[in-house]
Design a protein that fits this description.
Layout lengths: L1 E5 L41 H14 L21 E3 L7 E9 L4 E12 L11 H13 L4 E5 L2 E2 L16 E6 L6 H4 L11 E14 L5 E9 L3 E9 L2
Parallel strand pairs: 2-4, 3-10
Antiparallel strand pairs: 1-4, 4-8, 5-6, 5-9, 7-8, 9-10
Amino acid sequence: MKNRNVSILLFTATTLAFAAPSPAKAGPGNVCNPGILPPHSRPFGQSYAEWSVKWWQWVFSLPANENPIVNTGDGTAGQSGPVWFLSGAFAPTTATRSLHLPAGKALFFPIYNGWADNTGCPDYTTFSAQELLGFASGFVDSAPFCTCTIDGRTVQGLDNPANSPYRVGGQVFSYTLAPTDNILTSFFGAGCIADGTTVSPAAEDGVYLMVAPLSAGKHTIHFTVLGYLDITYRITVAK
């Protein structure tokens, strides 16, 4: 099996203040986490599962030397539309990152996730999409203790990722690598994989959060994965 990897985040904060214009409103089904859009909602017309696929496609589309997930790129890289992504890391990491965020943007990011595909060197493997789903989901099934705070408020429902209400479940998808300095070659050492390659099938599973647009000013998101990740995002939202 190939590329069963993790991507995770960490955050810390001070007072939770949200300005959530329609359609991004944290509804009554999410009263324990008032700043998080409910996991069964469809923020901006897409489900959590659909946004999770877009998150992976965003990560793989960026060159390694401009990629926030390996701490080499600005957090604005490749961002557009009403939802911006935050990234964790592919290896054990403690980091503090800064992000200048336009007003009115929701934030979507994984707390703990994994992916699997058939890429490999010198030859690809031949696992079925169902087998790849099993690898990705098995990775999340064994996830350790996780935490997330947003402006000092603890997000509920993350301590057991395998059973979290924010777990999206397995998704089959495809992704296209960056046209230069692709991350599979540059970071993972898979030198036989050409820039711009489209990989299909791939599979993913994970625990994700969609944060409603934050109010203007400074915010902190901090998340941890026990023994693996500790990442803080210091975010400045434009007026």
